[in-house]
Design brief:
0% strand, mainly alpha, 103 residues, 4 helices
């Protein structure tokens, strides 16, 4: 009698674990498909945005391109300042700012 009760309890636990295990396979496949579609859309968006930026750059004159490149370089240096090692920053030479030229 006791063995039957234990067997029934174990069977009920095993079934409850399988039921509470998670989503069905179809739901998992649908989620994976949606994530893949999202990744593809994001990749296509990034690709087109890079293409547009490149086209805009190509439309500029040579002087403007030089100025844009210099501005990008300066902004990268400015943004990377905090990432430098503390000790290196402490003992590095300070750069003097160049005077702006008149147009």
């Amino acid at each position: 009698m006791l063995k039957k009760r234990i067997a029934v309890i174990l069977l009920a636990l095993a079934l409850s674990v399988n039921i509470a295990e998670g989503q069905s396979r179809k739901v998992d496949q649908a989620i994976a498909k949606q994530e893949k579609r999202d990744r593809q859309e994001r990749k296509a968006y990034e690709k087109t945005s890079k293409k547009v930026v490149k086209q805009m750059y190509e439309m500029q004159t040579e002087k403007t391109k030089e100025r844009m490149t210099e501005t990008r370089r300066k902004s990268d240096e400015y943004n990377d300042r905090g990432k430098q090692n503390f000790i290196k920053k402490l003992f590095s030479k300070k750069k003097k700012h160049k005077k702006r030229r008149k147009r």
